[in-house]
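Cross-check.
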Amino acid sequence: MSVQNGSPIRREVAVVLPCYNVEAYLPRALDSVFAQTYTDFQIYAVDDGSLDGTIRVLGTYAERCCFLFQSHAGPGAARNRGIQMSDSPFIAFLDADDEWLPHKLERQVALLKEDPTLGLACSLCALYESGKQTGSSWRAAGMPTSGRLFQHLARSCFVFTPTVVVRRRCLEEVGLFNESLAVSEDFNLWLRIAARWKIALLPEVLAINHKRSDSLSSAISPEERLGSGVAALEDVQSHCPDLSAAEARALRAALAERIYFHGSYLLSTGATAPARRRLARVLKLQPLHWRTLAKLLLTFFPPHASEILAGLRTKKAYGLLRDH
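Predicted model, tokenized:
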């Protein structure tokens, strides 16, 4: 591991930027940080074992950011290293292929300063693919924009990582990213925060998430992605024993849904025995989960028949779970 640019002056916000083979996108991300109307920040970039020219690009910004190179360990480990490099009271996250809009930090830091009971502030996020906007994140009808939002978050992850600013004291209490998770490590942390702290969603677009086919997450197999999603929620259960009854119900329902999709995917591949085990577990969590009952019956059909009946619908539904 090598470190560049020494120890920076302490700033109010640490901008943590994990990088992996992002030579072509990194200048856009960095320039969006330097274009912020709020300027009391320091960038901590972690090159997570890139094989392209990412470290060379970081070198061209050496006077304006602190960066290091480490062996490839995944986005959770890279973000944790960036957090540990810093000592700022607020921490903002930006993936190296995404970008911020100019007022992002100004809006969110003001919100966190105004209410010390807030652990995390996020915002809406524009979604781009191939240079064109394809949509934006949203909040469910009737969901408050601030408060104890664990139940809402468990049902649907409205927190996009490039929109997050978190209070360091909050991370000191709940812990950092779970490095054992291949994906959903961010969703896992946001839930652990929401279990103990108030969070806030600014209902305006302050960041842009760029989808790309060659991203690290796109290389993860469907089974690993779905299994990691289940493990992320199981980890929340084990680390958050003091949830209210309503919060615990919401988490069980979310976990049941993740296990259902995992079991359904396995069924679509013809792996009937492991699919049956997972679907049976859904019924322990949610006995009236009628879709699981139907899929469980399919596990007793010949493999080819169950693949035909289960495959297309499962793969379509799986697409809805790709981001978290």
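The longest strand covers residues 198-211. The chain is about 45% helix and 20% strand. Passed to J.P. for a second look.
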